[in-house]
């Protein structure tokens, strides 16, 4: 008998509880969650997009700087090697100044490279070889060294182009 009364009590409770109240409570809870979750999600998405945009801009600037420095490095290396053919430029003070300029550009490039990247490492090795060749060129070896230097600078250009193309691919893929 008590069991029967409990069932009747439960039945009367469901009859008195109206579905509109339950639905209103669910709607209110959904609205509360959406007012909290929606802005948080929008904030995270906007923050990520801003970060990506900043990174892409920085990477483009990095590529432009690397390209300019590689061109300046190669031009100065050739100018310095050809300048050694002219007796006035063989004055030790002039050669020292030219080497200092070349080292400055070399270090600007190397500081932009990632030593863990194979292509960056190969480019750095070729740049070191150019510096060693320019610094160690003797007058009696000059013509052969100039041919070797041209070949080495062509290698630097090819490796630099490869590094830059890889970075451009990264930008394009986002």
Overall description:
With 174 residues, the protein is an all-alpha fold. It is built from five helices and no strands. The protein has helices at residues 2-16, 19-83, 92-112, 118-136, 142-173. The radius of gyration is 35 Å and the shape is rod-shaped.
Q: What would the average pLDDT be, to the nearest integer? A: 76
Oligomerization state: single chain
**Computed CA radius of gyration, to the nearest angstrom:** 35 Å
| Count of distinct strands | 0
| Alpha-beta content class | mainly alpha
Proportion in β-strands: under 5%
Helix content: over 70%
Count of DSSP H/I helices: 5
Low-confidence stretches: none
Q: Termini separation (Å)?
A: 73 Å
What order do the helices and strands follow? HHHHH
Shape: rod-shaped
Q: Biggest sheet, open or closed, and with what strands and sense?
A: none
Task: Summarize the helices and strands and which ones pair or pack.
Elements: H1 2-16, H2 19-83, H3 92-112, H4 118-136, H5 142-173
Helix pairs in contact: 2-3, 2-5, 3-4, 4-5
Keywords, please?
174 residues, mainly alpha, 87% helix, 0% strand
In short:
The model has no long low-confidence stretch (mean pLDDT 76).
